[in-house]
Model the fold of this input.
Amino acid sequence: MSDIVRALDPRGLFNDVQRAPLSPRPETLEGKTVYIINSWPGETHGFTNVEKALDAYLREKYAGIRLEYRTRLMYSSDDPPLWAEMKQNADCFIYFAAPSCSTTACAVTWPARSIERAGIPGLTVIYRYLEEDALMSQEREGMRIRLAETEFPCTNISDADLSDLLHDIEDALLRPLSEAEQEGGIYTPEQPPRFCAEGTEDELQEFFQENGMTDGLPIIIPTEERVAEMLKGTSHAPDEIVITQMAPEGRIVTVEKAAITAVMAGAKPEYLPVILAMIEIMGIDQKHHQTAKSTNAFSWMQVVNGPIRKEIGMNDSVCALGPGGRANAVIGRAHRLALINLGGSEVGVNLMGVQGNVSTYTFAFAENEESSPWEPYSTSRGYSKDESVLTILTGGWSHCGNYMLKPNLDEFYAAVKTFEMLHGVTILVSPLRAKELCEGEGCRTRKDIEEFFCNHITMSIGELKAIGIFDRLIVPDYKSGTHEWDPSVISLPDDAVIPVFPRSQVNVIVVGDPQGSNVVQGWAQCNPHSASIDRWR
Done:
């Protein structure tokens, strides 16, 4: 008979929720100004026909109603100027989401944080298959944003269903608040227990699978003894809080919870500082919360620099991005398990990738610093050469390159420009190709090589306008004063040729076999965030 063991619960802890009441509803829409907000530009959100019908319905029924249409260029970003404009002018709002998991979450988040709290009543229109994602965001935000739902796609919605939807929108704008919608105060969710289950190892494997606590592969059962051994990999106390807002749902993560994840992934104790740095990064930026739940298929590239690469046996050479390296595979896998258990990612709820992405299983490797002609990638992130550093980049749905055997890289540049979303690029260069670029192109420093690729991946202003990148990225960058791009590009003519990416979003990393051929790959990975691994030793 197999031994009975108990498994520690891997799930992150819940923060207290500050509940807030909805804004009071008006008695009528006559003479009111209603802001209609679209999450996406163009008509890809699929609600155009609904909006046209809604426009006609409201104008016919309510005398003097004013409808103001606004489109979010970046659905995941805060928009203080729009919220301020609405606070001054809007009586109500209708926020249309999109057939996207992260967009639907944001279409609940921003009304809760910035519109209803400003005293403006309204609702969010969503696709019914993303309802659970919207409800999860409602719970997290502590506000019962009203929802009107329809099937996807709704481009051919029946007259009867359209009529029902219009009445649902109208009702959500006017129906007086219920007692539940007026609740305030602090709500403390029930926390996961210390132990989630007991049984044989085989029984617990099934328990973790059936309860959505794995990535689909078998795990190491996180017993108290195994987790205690894992904790020897750090000097930090088990109850120390690593982050309070783990992506995607903003959970609290302690050192012990991180160690549970490390055990499940198959880590050795010496890997734990890397995994702790990973979890730290996943609580840094709100964008991780949006990309972690998507109908797209985002993944995260983890790059390790510094002495710990060799200490724990990370692969930076032959097949570094492939199978065979335990440290690479486990550290990459730990990221996905952390999103699932520590952050609350659930397939079919807030993880709705239409096709998914194989690089979400594991995508971690070390830079081959010894074979690189340039200083380590981490130095461009502000760290010293002798410091162990983890950098995580986000994206991962597009990839190009491999054997670029021709002397020039024209085909590579052309391929990178076909990436669907031109937010940034990470270029993985084999040691031989790095040597060729250093000696043949004069790229002697990291700044040289980053500028080299930046200046060769170019498009005209007219081309960038045609694919929407100019309006969606460059114009907002200019208006916000961020100036990732040179501000002068705003006034250039359409035939002017400029770099597709700002240099800060062109990342060059040397990885691969020093004896291999001159391989180069491009990945749609950008927005790097780094953390010291040494801090977690």
Q: What stands out?
A: The chain has a mean pLDDT of 93.
